[in-house]
Structures are given as C-alpha cells and as structure tokens.
Amino acid sequence: EDQVTQSPEALRLQEGESSSLNCSYTVSGLRGLFWYRQDPGKGPEFLFTLYSAGEEKEKERLKATLTKKESFLHITAPKPEDSATYLCAVQAAGTASKLTFGTGTRLQVTL
Amino acid sequence: NAGVTQTPKFQVLKTGQSMTLQCAQDMNHEYMSWYRQDPGMGLRLIHYSVGAGITDQGEVPNGYNVSRSTTEDFPLRLLSAAPSQTSVYFCASRNDRALFFGSGTQLSVL
Q1: CB contact B27 to A (< 8 Å)
Q2: Residue A95: what pLDDT?
Q3: Nearest to A43 among B44, B48, B103 (CB)
Q4: Dihedral sign, CA of B51, A26, A63, A103?
Q5: Looking at residue A93, what DSSP letter applies?
Q6: Contact assignment for B48 to A42 by CB distance below 8 Å
Q7: What percent of chain B has pLDDT over 90?
Q8: Do the Cβ atoms of B98 and A46 come within 8 Å?
Q9: pLDDT value for B96
Q10: What pLDDT is recorded for position B1?
Q11: B39 at the A interface (CB within 8 A)?
Q12: Taking chain A (111 residues) in consecutive chunks of 10 residues, what is each chunk's mean pLDDT?
C-alpha cells in the first residue's frame, strides 16, 4: 500500500529563517511526487511535480527536491505570506491518476 | 478561465437526507475526481472518472454515487447522509502535469 508521511506536523519560523519540510514515501513504482499549498478554507494549490530521483524544481522562495525515498521542500528566507499547510502526494505507476496524500505540514512564518 | 468550480460552499444536512455536490471544470480535462479531507487525515479519494461515461471507485466510495455525462461536469451524490460524512469535499481535474482542485464544499451532517 502506498504511504506518505510528512514531518514536522507544524513548524513556526521567523521571517527570513530558512528551513525544510520532509515528505517520506513508499510506493510501488513512482510515477510522480506532488507538492501543494493549502490556505485555510481553500482548495490545495499546485506547486510542483517531481518525476525521478535527483530532480529539483524552484518557484520563488520554494525549492523541491526528490530522492528514492523522500522529498524535501526547502523554504529560503520565508515571508509571512508563505504561511500555509504544505501537502505532499504520490502517484504510483498504473493507478489512473490516483494520488495518495500525506497529512501536511502547517507552516507559520512570523515577523 | 474559472478552473474547477464547486457548489455549494457550505451545506448542513440532517441524517438520512440526500443531496448533490456540484462540480464543473472548463479546462477540457478528461480526468476528474472527488476527495474528502478530514482533520488529521490526508485527502482521500472517493470516486474518479477518466472520461465521459466512465467512473470508478476510489479509497472511500461507500455512501456516495457519481456519474459523468459530460466532460465538464462530475456531480457527487449522497443518497442518505450520515454523520460520518461530515467533511470537506474537494473536486479536482487533471491534465498531464498535475491535479487542480476546486475551493471545496464544507458539509455537516447532524
């Protein structure tokens, strides 16, 4: 069974204090690993898709990396507007786009 | 381009009542799906469709029905609501890059 574990559950950073969120996964043949951002009362917003170990994607202050067992979402010099819950999901090969989600990391960035 | 549109945003039902959650997308995506989100749990797949006329069950299908008569619409039906169906429901559609979500329906069953 596919599994996704995210850590930490919650993270509080000061503005400018860089850190990383972790997503560990087990899947029978990775077809894609996805990162989403979710604000309170909103639907998940797509950030990145990673397909193979060694791949990296960047968007503003966010950088996602992938190994064979985990993915990291690095946040460089975060701002208060980066506060949100970050979700990780995996898709196994041959699963018709079914994603398995982790429970998320709740990030709070303070001034 | 509105993306994925869900209605209603909020709904309160009594146990045993039925209702339909509406979902429409204007991106011409073949794949659409319904997820529910509960505190402390990841998003869980209820039903999905890979095209008009084709639907299949996800991880937690019991108590829910779906149909797909057009590419644009994918309604989710609760035939006899139960308190265990209190949740936030998200509809999503997918292209070859990622899954894109609607803004959700918060459902309470009393």
Answers
A1: no
A2: 76
A3: B103
A4: positive
A5: T
A6: no
A7: 91
A8: yes
A9: 85
A10: 66
A11: no
A12: 95 97 94 96 96 96 97 98 98 84 97 93
Paired with A84 in beta bridges are A107
A34–B102: do the CB atoms touch at under 8 Å?
A: no
Strands (E) across A1-111 are located at 3-7, 10-14, 19-26, 30-38, 45-50, 56-59, 62-66, 70-75, 84-92, 99-101, 105-110
Q: Which of A47, A44, A108, A42 is nearest to A81 (CA)?
A: A108
Å between A49 CA and nearest CA of chain B: 7
pLDDT at residue B2 in the model: 77
Task: Tell me how close the Cα of A27 comes to any Cα of chain B, in angstroms.
Answer: 16
Output b/e per residue, A41-78; b: 16+ Cβ within 10 A: eebbebbbbbeeeeeebeeeebbbbbeeebbbbebeeb
**A49/B45 touch (CB, cutoff 8 Å), yes or no:** no
Tell me if the bond preceding A80 is cis, omega within 30° of 0: no
Whether residue B42 and residue A42 make contact (CB cut-off 8 A), yes or no, is no
pLDDT digits (tens, 9 = 90+) for B25-48: 999 999 999 999 999 888 999 999
Can you list the residues of chain B whose pLDDT is less than 70? Answer: 1
**Torsion A24-B42-B60-A51 (CA) sign:** negative
Give the C-alpha separation, B3 to B67, whole Å: 20
